[in-house]
Amino acid sequence: DPDSRTEVVLLACGSFNPITNMHLRLFELAKDYFHETGKYKVIKGIISPVGDAYKKKGLISANHRVTMAKLATKNSDWVEVDDWESCQSEWLETLKVLRYHHQKLLSADVNNSLQDAVPITKLGRKRKREPSRHEPIKKKNQSPVVKSVPQVKLLCGSDMLESFGIPNLWKLEDIAEIVEKHGLVCISRAGNNVQKFIYESDILWRHKDNIHLVEEWISNDISSTKIRRALRRGQSIRYLVPEVVRAYIEENGLYSPESEDSNSGLLLAPLQKNATDPRSSQALN
Amino acid sequence: MRSRIPVILLACGSFNPTTNMHLRLFELARDHLHQTGRYQVVEGIMSPVSDNYGKKGLVSARHRVAMARLALETSDWIRVDPWESQQDTWTETVKVLRHHYNEALRALQSKEIMRNKHPTEGSMEDSLSCQQPVLPELKLLCGADFLQTFKTPNLWKEEDIKEIVEKFGLVCISRAGSDPSQFIQESDLLSKFQHNIFLVREWIQNEISATQIRCALCRGLSVKYLIPDSVIAYIAQHRVYSEQS
C-alpha cells in the first residue's frame, strides 16, 4: 500500500566545497534504495552546506557554496538547498541541524493536517463483508488517512560514518541520538569497511536497523578536494561537476592556492568545542 | 617562437550511451597534451561504431549519434562524426583514423586556398601566416583496456598497430593504480614508438561504464549525474534501452 509508506527526507550536511556530481549521486542512490524496499517514500532531499565558522582549511565563503549548490539543484524536482545552517554565526552540531529540519517537517505536517481537518470519507466503497454479519468491521473505511510521522535521515558517505571514530569530532550522545531518533543512510563503494566499523561500535550496532547501507557499484570518487586540486593546476573539471557550477567557479575565480590556505593553522570548530567538554572524551567503541 | 603542433583527438567506441566518463577522456587528454608544451588540441571527434559491429545490447546508430550530439552540446571543441556509423560494414580503427586525417588535410587545404584568394593586407597575421601551416596530428584517444587488446591473438593486424602508433599516435587514459607502461615495454613494436604513446593517469576515479548505465536503466534506477541530463531525457523519450535492446 503506497499510502502506508513512511515518508523520508534525506539531509546531507557537509562543506560542499564545491558541490560535485558525486554529492548529487548520493541522493539518487539513496532514493532508489528506499523506493526499492517498498516501505519508504523519499519526499525531499536537502543539501545543508556548513557555515564558515567550521574553519576547515580551504573552505571558501558560504555564499558561494550555497549559490553553487542551488545552481546544481536548479533542475532537480526534489533536491533543494537549505541555507539555515550556513547562516548561523557559530558552528552547529549536525544533530542540531537534523533536529531543526525534523521540527520544520513536523510543523509543516501539522499545518497540512489542520487544513485537511475534515476526515476523509471514502465514498462509494463497497463493504467487504455481508451486512448481515454482526461482527464489527475491522477496517474502518471512513477514518481519516493516517500517515506515519515523516523522518529526516542523515545522508552521507562512508567517510562521514567512519569519522564518528575521530576523537573529539563527535559527541557520543549526538551519535546515539542521530542513529536512534533519526537514522543514517550511508553510501559506500563496494568492498568497503563500513559493516566492520558498525560491528565494532556498540551504539551503532544497537541501532543498525536504522543505519541503511547502500552500495555504489559505479565507481565515482569525485571528491571536492580533487576538484580544487585540479582547478589550482589549471586542469579541466568538466563532467565532474554540473556545467553551471563549473561556469560559476570560472566566472568568479574561485579556488586558488590562496583560498586553499584559508583557515590554515586553525582548529576545526567541533574539535575546538569538544576539547573543552569532558563528556566528549567518551569513545565510540 | 616555436609553435605548438595542432592535435585532433579521435575516440572510437560504442557510446552506448555516451557517459560523463567518455567526455572526461577528452578533457584529460587535452590537459595532458597541453601541459607537455608541445601540442595544441584543436578538435575532439567522437566516432560511434556502426550497427554491424554486432556487439550485444548495441542500439541503433541513429540513437547513439543523437545522444552523443546532445552530450556534446555544452562543448566548444568536441563533436560527433557519424561517418563510421554510416558505413555498410564494420570499419577497422586504422581506416577510421585515415579517413579523419584525410578530412583534416582537406579542410586545411581549402582554408589555405581561401587565404590565398583573399589575402589580408597589412595585418600582423601576415608575417606569421607566411610560414607553412603546421600539419595537424590525429591521435587515437582510448582507455588502457584498449591498449591491452593489442595482444589478443588475431584481433589486430601487426601492420595496423604499427600504422596507428607510428603515423598517428595514441593517447591512453588509465585509472589510478593501473600502469600500462609495463605493457608497452614488453612489446617491441610499442616501445619503439613510445614517444608517440601518451599515457595519462586519471586520479579522480570515475569509471562509469555504459554497461552499468544500461543495467541501471533497465532496472528503473537513476543515472542522473552519471550521464548528461539531455541524454537521460532522450533515452526516456525514445525508450532507447529496454529488456529487448
Automatic annotation (TrEMBL), chain A:
One of its GO terms (cellular component) is nucleus. Residues 11-229 form the Cytidyltransferase-like domain. Keywords: ATP-binding, Magnesium, NAD, Nucleotide-binding, Nucleotidyltransferase, Nucleus, Phosphoprotein, Pyridine nucleotide biosynthesis, Transferase, Zinc. One of its GO terms (biological process) is NAD+ biosynthetic process. Its EC number is 2.7.7.1, 2.7.7.18. It is found in: Nucleus. Pathway: Cofactor biosynthesis; NAD(+) biosynthesis; deamido-NAD(+) from nicotinate D-ribonucleotide: step 1/1; Cofactor biosynthesis; NAD(+) biosynthesis; NAD(+) from nicotinamide D-ribonucleotide: step 1/1. It holds the Pfam family CTP_transf_like. Its cofactor is Zn(2+); Mg(2+). GO terms for molecular function: ATP binding; nicotinamide-nucleotide adenylyltransferase activity; nicotinate-nucleotide adenylyltransferase activity. It catalyses: beta-nicotinamide D-ribonucleotide + ATP + H(+) = diphosphate + NAD(+); nicotinate beta-D-ribonucleotide + ATP + H(+) = deamido-NAD(+) + diphosphate. Homohexamer. Interacts with ADPRT/PARP1. PANTHER family: NICOTINAMIDE MONONUCLEOTIDE ADENYLYLTRANSFERASE, NICOTINAMIDE_NICOTINIC ACID MONONUCLEOTIDE ADENYLYLTRANSFERASE 1. Belongs to the eukaryotic NMN adenylyltransferase family. This is Nicotinamide-nucleotide adenylyltransferase. The gene is Nmnat1.
UniProtKB/TrEMBL annotation, chain B:
GO terms for cellular component: mitochondrion; nucleus. The keyword rRNA-binding does not apply. Pathway: Cofactor biosynthesis; NAD(+) biosynthesis; deamido-NAD(+) from nicotinate D-ribonucleotide: step 1/1; Cofactor biosynthesis; NAD(+) biosynthesis; NAD(+) from nicotinamide D-ribonucleotide: step 1/1. One of its GO terms (biological process) is NAD+ biosynthetic process. Its EC number is 2.7.7.1, 2.7.7.18. It is an enzyme of class 2 (transferase). The keyword Nucleotidyltransferase applies. It catalyses: nicotinate beta-D-ribonucleotide + ATP + H(+) = deamido-NAD(+) + diphosphate; beta-nicotinamide D-ribonucleotide + ATP + H(+) = diphosphate + NAD(+). One of its GO terms (molecular function) is nicotinamide-nucleotide adenylyltransferase activity. Its cofactor is Mg(2+); Zn(2+). It comes from the Eukaryota. Keywords: ATP-binding, Magnesium, NAD, Nucleotide-binding, Nucleotidyltransferase, Nucleus, Phosphoprotein, Pyridine nucleotide biosynthesis, Transferase, Zinc. Residues 10-215 form the Cytidyltransferase-like domain. It is found in: Nucleus. Homohexamer. Interacts with ADPRT/PARP1. NCBIfam families: nicotinate (nicotinamide) nucleotide adenylyltransferase. Belongs to the eukaryotic NMN adenylyltransferase family. This is Nicotinamide-nucleotide adenylyltransferase.
